[in-house]
């Protein structure tokens, strides 16, 4: 799978760890930054935009975004048309984000998750399939909202 990944200054160490893990699993990982753990504070919206654009236009199959809490990153990611980013902080939210919401971006918070749990959640997220069925209707409604169409 082609995976785009990015982290702000808070998530560089976790991003490095996740890249190694995903690559070892056979994924093609595209590191979009940030890169310097000793560098300046990094604004996350441009990093989110890079990952999300790659997923939205098909250059990546899915994306991983890492922030401090992940909250701002989730908001930024979900501004990009075609993106369904899920903030995942436990097994339940991780499974729901994929199985019910067909999330194509996972967002994790480096300040709220131990690295081992973050690895577990990312693995679970990639292993969880979208259920389809009644959930597809809701995904279609979300897409209609993005297009500015009324919901019926």
Protein architecture, described:
The chain is α/β, with parallel strands linked by helices. It has a single domain (2-146), classed as 3-Layer(aba) Sandwich (Ribose 5-phosphate Isomerase B, Chain: A), CATH 3.40.1400.10. 45% of the residues lie in helices and 16% in strands. The protein has 6 helices and 5 strands; from the N terminus they run βαβαβαβαβαα. The chain has helices spanning 12-24, 44-56, 71-77, 91-99, 115-127, 134-146; strands at 2-7, 28-31, 62-67, 85-87, 105-109. Strands 2-1-3-5-4 form a 5-stranded parallel β-sheet, with helices on both faces. The longest helix has 13 residues, at 12-24. The radius of gyration is 15 Å and the shape is globular.
How would the blueprint of this fold be written?
Blueprint: E1 2-7, H1 12-24, E2 28-31, H2 44-56, E3 62-67, H3 71-77, E4 85-87, H4 91-99, E5 105-109, H5 115-127, H6 134-146
Parallel strand pairs: 1-2, 1-3, 3-5, 4-5
Helical content band: 40-55%
Which topology does CATH recognise? Ribose 5-phosphate Isomerase B, Chain: A
What is the averaged pLDDT score?
97
The assigned structural class equals: alpha/beta
Low-confidence spans: none
- Counting structural domains, the number is 1
CATH architecture assignment name: 3-Layer(aba) Sandwich
Radius of gyration, Cα only, in angstroms? Answer: 15 Å
H/E topology pattern: EHEHEHEHEHH
> What does the main sheet amount to?
5 strands, parallel
Strand content: 15-25%
Task: Tell me the overall shape.
Answer: globular
CATH class, anyone? Alpha Beta
Q: Number of DSSP strands?
A: 5
């Amino acid at each position: 799978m082609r995976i785009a990944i990015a982290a702000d200054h808070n998530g560089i160490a976790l991003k490095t760890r996740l890249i190694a893990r995903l690559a070892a699993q056979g994924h093609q990982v595209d590191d979009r930054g940030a890169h310097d753990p000793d560098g300046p504070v990094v604004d996350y919206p441009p990093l989110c935009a890079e990952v999300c654009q790659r997923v939205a236009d098909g250059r990546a199959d899915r994306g991983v975004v890492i922030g401090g809490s992940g909250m701002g990153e989730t908001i930024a990611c979900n501004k990009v048309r075609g993106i369904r980013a899920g903030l995942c902080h436990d097994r339940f939210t991780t499974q729901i984000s994929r199985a019910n919401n067909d999330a194509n971006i996972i967002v994790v918070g480096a300040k709220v998750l131990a690295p081992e749990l973050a690895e577990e959640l990312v693995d679970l997220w990639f292993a969880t399939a979208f259920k389809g069925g009644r959930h597809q209707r809701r995904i279609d409604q979300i897409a209609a909202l993005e297009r500015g169409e009324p919901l019926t």
